[in-house]
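The data are passed on as follows:
___
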Amino acid sequence: MIKLQNHIPKAILSLIIVSAFLLMLGSAKQDSAVMDELAHIPAGYSYIKFFDYRLNPEHPPLIKALSALPLLFQGLKFPVDGDAWQNQTNAQWEIGKEFLYNSGNDVDKIIFYSRLAPMLLLLILIGFTYFWANELTGKWWALLPALLIAFSPNFLAHGHYVATDIGATLGILVSSYYFLRFINKPSRKNIVVAGIVFGVAELLKFSAVLLVPFFILIVSILLLEKIIKEIKSPVVENKLKKIFKFFYVDFGRLLLIFAVGGALIYLIYGLFTLNYPAEKQYSDTASILQSFDNNFLTESVLAMSQNTVLRPLSEYFLGILMVIKKSSEGSINYFLGEVSNQGSPLYFPIIFIMKETLPTLIIVFTAFLLGLWGILKTVAKGRKNIKNKFFEYFTTNFSELSMLIFVAGYWLYSMNSNLNIGFRHIMPMLPFIYILSAQAVKKLFYIAPPAIPDTLAQKFINMIRKILNLGTKSVILAGLLIWLITGAIFANPYYLSRFNEFFGGTFDGYKYATDSNFDWGQDLKRLKEFLDNPPDTLTGQAETIDKVAVDYFGGGNVKYYLGDKAEDWNSAMGSPLESGIKWLAISIHTLQNAIGKKADNFDHNPQDEYLWLENSLSPDYKAGTSIFIYRLEQ
């Protein structure tokens, strides 16, 4: 009986993982290619088919390569003879269009099979979150953070796209775990394992570079604790020698971890640049770096691209430079009614509150308040003890405080970024937040109401009060989780556009933010379904749609799906009515960027603002959630 009870949490976890897979499966089949997939899918295929890295260097290869593995068995045609591949620099978008839509390949089959790897990574993320939480909170409470991920519309959305965000989240989580395990048990084996998973994390997304200062900070805190203890030690001899030994041993081991990770990075980049012609890599690198400031880093990357041994590292560091540049420059972004290419420190905190589910927010903020209350009580007991309390807590709650440090650092990094294009960019810290929240909620369950004096009758009353207190908390938590699960089920298949109930729900979040928060191009196939089966009018007769003007944002291809029924359009072309077209379909990302209030420093063209479109946010119909459809002539 006891053995059976031990297996129940694992059975529930399996059910959670299967449920997440089934929820993603429908969306993966129905959604058209989102913007990043247009570049990532052909790039990944070129890596494992040709061992050539000329496409999409601004992202590491691992997610793209894993996603492309099932494509090797489909006998696909790839445009290696075209000008975009032969002569252009990083022509990822052009080659994406050719490979997916103009080469005779089965696009929907390619997209679906490419999405299997990201879906698998999300399932592994759920399982690993449970695994780590189990060590900290126990097997039953570990189900809570697993549930928060598995039924999060944000994770379900990005878990079925060929993008780097789920990979980054998994890589950072696993790398942090094995690094902290090495800290607890600094054996050679743990150094190697920590180094390998660190290298894997770096190959999943460049934001994993933040692990470097994180690891250095953790080692520095532990080193500082050792130094303070040594200084306070009554033994006077060899203090300086011991402190120096602490330093070079601790940081020497950390450098070994970085070296192992670096070796793996070099190996994978070496494999995928194997057939990248040296002269082509050099010319591509020089072309990309033309728009960068000329400094030691850019010159070093360019010089490495000419060296046979260092070519793989050149490609890796080129990607990092591209990401840094993109993050500093920002991107055109609609947020809270304004269009700008400048970031805001409030963007990610507000997007978190808008996009995170309400039951999860209640759990997270309850945990935050409990933690804050605990800190305030510690401070109130006396400032003199704060330093000692910190090191005491760090020693006894090593993993928890390390998670807090990472979350705080990642928040600061995100809030200082100019690249404000989506909730997905803060996902790497969410498993840490969910695990810490589960711990805090668990402690809350064991806080009993104040006891009354101890007579026999009063003992009975105290017992009843504890049962009622625990029962009330259990009912509340169960209600929140039922709310979370049913919310995920009802949001299917429109996970990407899902905001919480206070900010538009599934269909109206575009009023606050777009891009990968709401519209990434996922509804083009649903526009085709709409045109193939137009709705009935008030008279009971079906609409007649011979031609539609389409202004689409995303990784799909209008002509491929809609054929001669569609005409590519934009605002500067004026009203389609002037060309005899009575219908207009616009991606809401494009529309909000056009009609939203422009920031003072944002340069824009009034011709692009759809000034001629009346009632622009009141379409006659919608395809999915993100393509607005207008009947221009009543």
Notes: The CA atoms of residues 337 and 596 lie 6 Å apart. The mean pLDDT is 90. The longest helix spans residues 456-491. The beta strands are 333-335, 338-340, 548-551, 566-568, 583-587, 597-598, 621-623, 627-631.
